[in-house]
Queue: 3 jobs
Job 1
Amino acid sequence: MRDPAEIIRRMSNAVLAALPVHQLHALDTSLLALQHGDLLACAFSSEARAQTALPPRYTTVLHDLLDRLESSALFSEESSSFSQQDLLDSLRMWMDKARGALEQP
């Protein structure tokens, strides 16, 4: 028979390890909505900034991209330094890299 404390510790570790992947999946769904025009940039940014289980290096890059996305939302047209499409592409690339890193065993 296994020690109940050991079982709880292992289960807790599994739950904690799943949190970043779960948060990333929710953020991916919101990014798709943003890309399709069903979500405003400010709403996406607020949701993304609330993701606290991501590793620090991914959070830093995400916040930099969000700062630029929020700035780009101030312009009604595409500008050379604030292209929303380029930022959405960068967010998609970030998402793919973060998912790949988090889903590794």
Job 2
Amino acid sequence: MLKKFLLSLVICLVLINLSPLTALGSSQEATEIQQMLICPSSADLGITVYNNPDSTSEAIKQEIDKKLAAGETKDQVMNDFVAQYGPAILAAPPKKGLGLVAWIIPPVFI
């Protein structure tokens, strides 16, 4: 009887400790997306969603979490925000089209 209780206790503790690991994985992906987006309310300052505590950033963070929970990939989430706000929401210019110029020109002058 004691062995069954101890086994049950160990299983419960293992399951409790594993649950934050799954949340951490999605949280890490959400954090990466937040760091790649400029907050629209602070676009002139270039502050990312991750670093901005205002209500606009908080709403975007919640939207990112919802999209990831719904099964969207990182690229799908990023594309949704670019479609909604335009390429100015990106913290770094895209590595294609005119954005590619921003990646090529600086090293040329160094």
Job 3
Amino acid sequence: MKPALSRSLLRRMKRRNAITIFLAAVLLSGCSSTIPSRPEATLREDVTLTLKHPERWTLPSGLTVMYLPDDELPTVQGKLYLRCGSLYDTPGKFGVATAAL
């Protein structure tokens, strides 16, 4: 059997919930006035995007290395892409490109 909550505790909980709902309504009503009615009404700056082109090297083994420096964070990241799979199989010889990996 659960103990019954006292009336004063129930009144405080109802008051706290009412205050929370009131504050949420006030905050949300303030947010709605800042949203423009049309997208064209927003102020925006012209954005220019400059793409960096990676440096490319081809090693004597035929491996192509692409280098793109990014000084934003002191980290190093590497990715390896291999040309293998059923796309590179010769006709009549299935699975050779994958097995050669």
